[in-house]
């Protein structure tokens, strides 16, 4: 078997293994990111709920201040009624008092309504805190497990890069440059087998002459259709 071809087959296999780590790492990063997003979403919802509770508490405080002012106003009306001398003044004062009492009643109703809302939101906040604790535990576990997997992948990558360096040192620079040029556009299919006399890169059938040249393996043969480097599949096993 052509020595250069054998070396390129081995190099292509190393490159395929190295490139296979990328989707694995992407998948690991996606799992970690998804777990973190869950934590972030719960924290965001908690922050929003706390803001709503605080805003409602401010509304309650405003209504309480209004109740205090209205109560003082009603007391003031009671004092004024003693000094009223005409029916017109009495009606006007009575109307003001009725309006004040209506506002007072509305303020009390609003306080009760908002307090009920805050009770629900406080319960919701407690539930969110429980969810956050669980989500953080899941994240820590997911992160620890997947960081360990990434470390293992990096170790394997380091070994393969060492093998690749050793492999490229033994390949003629002209042939290596030719392979790298094809790899820039063909990626992991720069070196492909022939199956049933067809290139397994573009799946086009090659001529009998080209096929016999690949079988002889006296030199590196490329696919006449796509330009990928070809080899007979049985030689992959030998390699």
Question: How are helices and strands ordered from N to C?
Answer: HHHEEHEEH
Multimer state: single chain
Mean pLDDT: 90
Strand content: 5-15%
**Name of the CATH class of the largest domain:** Mainly Alpha
Secondary-structure-based class equals mainly alpha
Q: How many helical stretches?
A: 5
- First CA to last CA: what distance? 9 Å
Low-confidence stretches: 235-239
What descriptive keywords fit this protein?
239 residues; mainly alpha; 2 domains; four-stranded mixed β-sheet; 5 helices; 4 strands; disordered C terminus
Describe what you observe in this structure.
Helix content is 80%, strand content 5%. It is mostly helical. The protein folds into two domains: 22-170, Orthogonal Bundle (Helix Hairpins); 174-238, no CATH class. Helix 1 (3-81) packs antiparallel against helix 2 (87-170). The longest helix is centred in the middle third of the chain and has 84 residues, at 87-170. 12% of the residues are buried. Residues 235-239 have low confidence and may be disordered.
Topology:
Blueprint: H1 3-81, H2 87-170, H3 173-186, E1 191-195, E2 198-199, H4 208-216, E3 221-222, E4 229-232, H5 233-238
Helix pairs in contact: 1-2
């Amino acid at each position: 078997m052509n020595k250069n071809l054998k070396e390129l087959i081995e190099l292509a296999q190393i490159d395929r293994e190295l490139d296979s780590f990328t989707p694995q790492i992407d998948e690991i990063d996606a799992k970690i990111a998804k777990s973190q997003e869950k934590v972030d979403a719960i924290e965001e919802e908690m922050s929003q709920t706390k803001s709503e509770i605080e805003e409602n508490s401010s509304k309650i405080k405003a209504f309480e201040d209004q109740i205090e002012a209205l109560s003082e106003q009603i007391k003031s009306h009671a004092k004024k009624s003693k000094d009223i001398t005409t029916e017109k003044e009495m009606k006007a004062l009575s109307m003001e008092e009725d309006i004040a009492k209506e506002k007072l009643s509305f303020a009390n109703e609003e306080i009760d309504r908002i307090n009920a809302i805050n009770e629900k939101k406080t319960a919701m906040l407690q539930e969110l805190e429980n969810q956050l604790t669980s989500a953080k535990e899941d994240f820590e576990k997911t992160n620890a497990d997947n960081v360990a997997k990434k470390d293992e992948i990096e170790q394997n990558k380091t070994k393969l890069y060492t093998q690749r360096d050793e492999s490229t040192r033994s390949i003629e620079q002209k042939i290596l440059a030719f392979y790298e040029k094809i790899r820039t556009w063909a990626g992991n299919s720069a070196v492909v087998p022939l199956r049933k006399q067809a290139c397994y890169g573009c799946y086009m059938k090659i001529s009998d002459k080209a096929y016999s040249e690949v079988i002889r393996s006296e030199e590196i043969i490329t696919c006449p259709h796509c330009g990928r480097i070809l080899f007979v599949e049985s030689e992959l096993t030998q390699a």
